[in-house]
Each structure stands twice: as C-alpha cells, then as structure tokens.
Design brief:
single chain, alpha/beta, TIM Barrel, eight-stranded parallel barrel, globular, alkanesulfonate monooxygenase activity, Lucif-like_OxRdtase_Rv2161c
C-alpha cells in the first residue's frame, strides 16, 4: 500500500513547496490538493461534511500552481488534484495545465476529477448543475484527446472544437492517470468509461468498501486503482482499508502553519511501513 496526504493549501497554512519537501523527507509518496475557485457569499448548497463550511474552503490556492511549487522542490512525490472541479474549468486550458505539470514534475502528475457540490459556485462559471455530470464526462474525454492526439478534435453536446494542436504533451504514457472522485450510484459508470481509478472520500458512501471495490474491478475487467482520501491517521483504519483492497491511503491533513504541520506529519509518518 502507498501513502500520501490530501489537504487544502491556503494563504494561511504551510506553503506548498515547504509541504512538498516535508512529505518527501518523511517518505510519503503523494500530495493531493483540493480546489474551490471561490465561495459565493449567498449559498444554499449544503456542505456534504455537515455543519458550517470550514475556513480552508474559502482560501484555497489554485491547485496546479501549488502542485507545481511542490513538484519543483521534490524528486519522487506524485502531485495530484483531490479533486479538480472540471465542470468549472475550460477543457483546453485544463489539458495544458496538467500536461505542463506532468512535464515540469518529470511525469508525476495525477488528475483527480469530480463535478462538485456547490451549485452556486458552478453557476458563477456558467455551468448548469442539472447537466454537470454530462459536462464532466465530455470535458474529461476532450482532455484525453488533447493529451494523446497530435491533431485533436472533439464534438459533443457541451464541448466542441475542430482539430487543434496542443502542447506540451504529458510525459506519462498514454497520459496522467485520471482518478474519479465520489461514491454515488453512478460513480462506477464514470470510472469504467473514462477513469483510470476511483478516489472516494473515507466514510462517505464507502461503508461496504471491500464489496464495492470487488464490484468495480469485476465491472471494469481490470484491477482498477483505488485511492482513498481524507483518511484518519489510525492504524486500525489503515489495516481496514488494506484488507478491503485499497491501493493508496491519503491521510487528511489539517491546514495549519508550517511548524504544526511538521508535528502532524511526524505523527502520520509513524504509520508508514518500516516506521
């Protein structure tokens, strides 16, 4: 099993380069960053975590800028989004951003994707929440075309462009892995059709995890990679996830200043193999 962290990088927590160095020094394999472009002042969409929306949601750095900062000071750390809100991003720009990150990092980029929950945020980007899943599908498929074709084109309901050149191409062959977030009734449909792995949040729709993973891999006809994020740093939880067939655990890291982050990571590192 592999280990990393999932977190929000903000303007009042540890800086992304310092976080990347701290993770690699302690033997972690990956860093996944959340995304919110903004939070509307008037919001009716409930936070899936329950209660008040935590402060880091309001203050996230752009994930690709932050991940690039982390990538340039590390050599092995995989850098990914957990998750990128693809329904709020232009697919041509997204393809270029991820390919550029993959190039800068030497082939360490991972694109975790989802449609999000904040309907007001989506609407500010011109996205109709009612069609966001269809939009997500087309944008991911379009990004893959842009990554893998010299003259890429796409003609869909929401995404439509004639042949274009887009460079750089990703370092990874055929492209950076696309991890599908969520655990809803149609999530596995998305993983099977256009995902390279599944990345649910611990405790949200994952109560029957071993059976869910077995079902997904049977449906896909392949060993789909499973990365679990926002995982509590407890030995019994790690053992439970390993037994269920999870490939990678991302410990949920609080957004706090550098000194406190180091103390938390030291505690997390005690759960790594060989610690």
């Amino acid at each position: 099993m592999e280990f990393g962290v999932s977190t929000f990088v903000t303007d009042d927590g540890i800086a992304p380069a310092a976080l990347g160095r701290a993770l690699e020094e302690r033997g972690f394999g990956s860093l996944f960053l959340a995304e919110h472009t903004h939070i509307p002042v008037k919001r009716e969409s409930p936070w899936p975590g329950g209660g008040e929306l935590p402060r880091p949601y309001y203050r996230t750095l752009d994930p690709f800028v932050a991940l690039t900062a982390a990538a340039t000071v590390t050599e092995r750390l995989r850098v990914g989004t957990g998750i990128a809100l693809v329904v709020q991003r232009d697919p041509i720009l997204l393809a270029k951003e991820v390919a550029s990150l993959d190039l800068v990092s030497g082939g360490r980029a991972v694109l975790g994707v989802g449609a999000g929950w904040n309907r007001e945020e989506m609407r500010n980007h011109g996205t109709d929440p009612r069609t966001r899943m269809r939009l997500l599908r087309e944008r991911v498929l379009a990004v893959k075309e842009l990554w893998t074709k010299d003259e890429a084109e796409f003609h869909g309901e929401f995404v439509d462009f004639d042949p274009v050149y887009l460079y750089p191409k990703p370092v990874q062959d055929p492209h950076p892995p696309v991890m599908i977030g969520g655990a809803g009734p149609t999530t596995f449909d998305r993983v099977v059709e256009y995902g390279d792995g599944w990345m649910p949040i611990y405790g949200r729709g994952t109560d029957e995890l071993a059976g869910q993973i077995a079902e997904l891999r049977e449906r896909a006809g392949r060993r789909v990679r499973v990365t679990m994020f926002s995982v509590p740093a407890k030995a019994e939880v790690v053992s439970e996830l390993e037994a269920a067939g999870v490939d990678e655990v991302l410990f949920g890291l609080k957004t706090v200043p550098e000194d406190e982050t180091h103390r938390i990571l030291d505690r997390f590192a005690g759960l790594l193999p060989g610690a």
